[in-house]
Write a structure and sequence with these properties.
The structure holds 2 protein chains of 2 kinds. Chain A is of the alpha/beta class. Chain A has a single domain, classed as P-loop containing nucleotide triphosphate hydrolases (Rossmann fold, 3-Layer(aba) Sandwich). Chain A has 8 helices and 9 strands. Chain B has a single domain, classed as ABC transporter involved in vitamin B12 uptake, BtuC (Orthogonal Bundle). In chain B, helix 1 (about 10-35) packs across helix 10 and helix 1 packs antiparallel against helix 11. The chains are: A alpha/beta, B mainly alpha.
Chain lengths: ~240, ~270
């Protein structure tokens, strides 16, 4: 059974249609890449899956239920992690926010919560930075911290919105290698512009521009993409449409 | 100067200065990290309407101003949560209407006329014992709420979108922060006046932010800086016989200037 099912989903802000009749099934341990132009509706789709926008037409189920019921099983890494860098907060505190807080003590954080947060930081290779102020980190390091925060609640699905938009090329590669590792146990959904990087790691690619074009990458195509020195997005989109 | 400490009104002023400094250090930190400075300014000026109302109906000033300020904070919370893009217009409007209402109500009050200046620029030497109880009580409530809900308030302040996803009631905590700000602004009006209250809520906090790794550290440092500035300002005001509220603010601003200069030199 698909863990996320989207059926005939349409969404509009006021009168402008953002998403038009989207159908998408996401299976367990998929590595799904969502690509498409700015304003094409990618972030809106994520917000609908996360229950942050309410559904107008069609349906979304996560784990067979309404999105809001299963928020604790979904980890989310927001788009811009370079906001609020003056905020006096330590890395570990940011990660601790990921807990849903069902076993919370009267004051502060429970011992298990802190241990779990440290575990998540270790997983993303940021353990030594736990006591640093978040503003002192680089963009790529901050992105890892946000991934750790999402991992804190032991999600079964990890959703990332443009995770590498503010990171240098080396950092991008590292983030995707980390995601590939995590993909051994959890389902990953990535919205991204960096098509060439995404294709290397994703097993499913969808292109969203109001409508959705669904595309399974065959092994040959993958190999071809990996071999190409220069990746041409136009060719790729033409193929998607064909 | 030491003989001044034997007067009850001086003792009251010192205690009031400390209580308000600690409260404004904690709440000022929340106001600054939540980017609510303009909102707090709006609440402070709207509160003047409450002062006018209290004078007109013969209620205790703190009670009238607090009720009015809390109402203002609820309206501001509602506006920011529903009409975020028109927020500045509405707050500017409340700012002016609150002041106008206060001026007219005080004009209409028969008999003696309250000194408008004492509310605009503070009257810490006129703090009564009841005022101290009120300030102490408020500080206690603030410390209790912050300790008890620290992680929620931290999450909402740092990343409200994520806090929503983690099931935290962001609207509730946002409104709570604004309400506590309103109550703090009212007691701070007594010390530095409603025009200068913004400086007390931001200058010590700004210095503390630069020196802190965590929000609670920022709150503690702000409270300490604020206390030092307030006590120095009071001493200054007594020695040279000048207005206390303005002295406190100028001492704070001077300290900020020196702090910025030193941190600049250190990075060179």
């Amino acid at each position: 059974m698909s863990i996320i099912q989207i059926k005939n989903l349409s969404f509009a802000y006021e009168k402008q249609k953002i998403l038009d009749n989207i159908n998408l099934d996401i299976e367990e341990r998929d590595f799904l890449a969502i690509i498409g132009p700015n304003g094409g509706g990618k972030s809106t789709l994520l917000k609908l899956i996360l229950g942050m926008n309410s559904i107008q037409k069609g349906s979304i189920t996560t784990f067979g239920e309404k999105p809001k019921k299963n928020l604790s099983k979904i980890g989310y890494v927001p788009q811009n992690t370079n906001v609020n860098t003056d905020f006096p907060i330590k890395v570990i505190e940011v990660v601790l926010m990921g807990h849903i807080g069902t076993k919370r003590p009267l004051f502060g954080y429970a011992k298990e919560e802190t241990m779990c947060a440290m575990g998540a930081l270790t997983q993303v290779g940021m353990k030594e930075f736990a006591q640093k102020k978040i503003g002192e980190l680089s963009g790529g390091q901050r992105q890892r911290v946000m991934i750790a925060r999402a991992l804190c609640a032991h999600p079964q699905i990890l959703i990332l919105d443009e995770p590498t938009s503010s990171i240098d090329v080396d950092g991008q590669k590292q983030i995707y290698q980390l995601l590939q590792l995590l993909n051994k146990t959890i389902t990953i959904i990535v919205v991204s512009h960096d098509i060439s990087v995404v294709l290397e790691f994703a097993n499913k690619v969808v292109h969203i521009n109001k409508r959705l074009i669904y595309h399974h990458l065959t092994q040959e195509e993958k190999a071809e993409l990996n071999q190409a020195d220069h990746f041409c997005e136009v060719n790729f989109f033409n193929r998607l449409k064909g | 100067m030491l003989e001044a400490l034997s007067y009850e009104f001086v003792q009251n002023a010192l205690i009031a200065g400390l209580l308000v400094s600690l409260a404004s250090g904690i709440i000022g930190s929340l106001i600054v990290v939540n980017r609510m400075v303009f909102l707090a300014g709006g609440i402070a000026h709207t509160a003047y309407g409450g002062i006018g109302m209290a004078v007109y109906f013969g209620l205790p000033i703190f009670l009238g101003a607090s009720l009015f300020a809390v109402m203002a904070s609820l309206i501001i919370a509602f506006i920011t949560l529903t009409h975020r893009n028109r927020m500045d217009t509405f707050i500017g409007l409340m700012w002016a209407v609150g002041m106008a209402l206060g001026v007219i109500l005080i004009d209409l009050t028969p008999g003696y006329n309250v000194d408008l200046m004492s509310y605009l620029f503070g009257s810490i030497l006129a703090v009564s014992r009841e005022d101290l109880y009120y300030m102490g009580g408020l500080l206690g409530v603030i410390i209790f709420i912050i300790t008890f809900w620290y992680r929620d308030i931290l999450a909402v302040s740092y990343d409200s979108e994520y806090a929503t996803l983690r099931g935290i009631n962001v609207k509730f905590f946002y409104t709570l922060i604004l309400m506590l700000s309103a109550l703090t602004v009212v007691v701070a009006i007594k010390v530095v006046g409603l025009i200068l209250v913004i400086a007390l809520l931001t200058i010590p906090v700004y210095i503390a932010e630069k020196l802190s790794n965590t929000l609670y550290m920022m709150m503690i440092l702000s409270g300490i800086f604020s206390s030092i500035f307030t006590l120095c300002g009071l001493g200054f005001s007594y020695t040279f016989d000048i207005a206390s509220g303005a002295s406190i603010i100028l001492i704070s601003a001077l300290s900020l200037f020196i702090f910025l200069l030193f941190s600049r030199l250190r990075t060179l």
